[in-house]
Predict the 3D structure of the following.
Amino acid sequence: MKDSRENTKATDDLCRRFDTWRKTHRSRAPIPSELWDRAAELAIEQGLWKTACTLYLDYNALKKRADARYADEL
């Protein structure tokens, strides 16, 4: 398991990527799968609620992707 400093850095990096993407796209444009995939990985590592709140993502959409990602890893 990663230590909290690595988790914070990963979260901060992904948060910046989401912010950059949101500033350059329309509000209803679909989030790229690359960002969703990384958010799902982060949710598995750090928890769904924390990740969804931090990245301003829909909890249920993130849960669905995290569950699918976790199943693929098994």
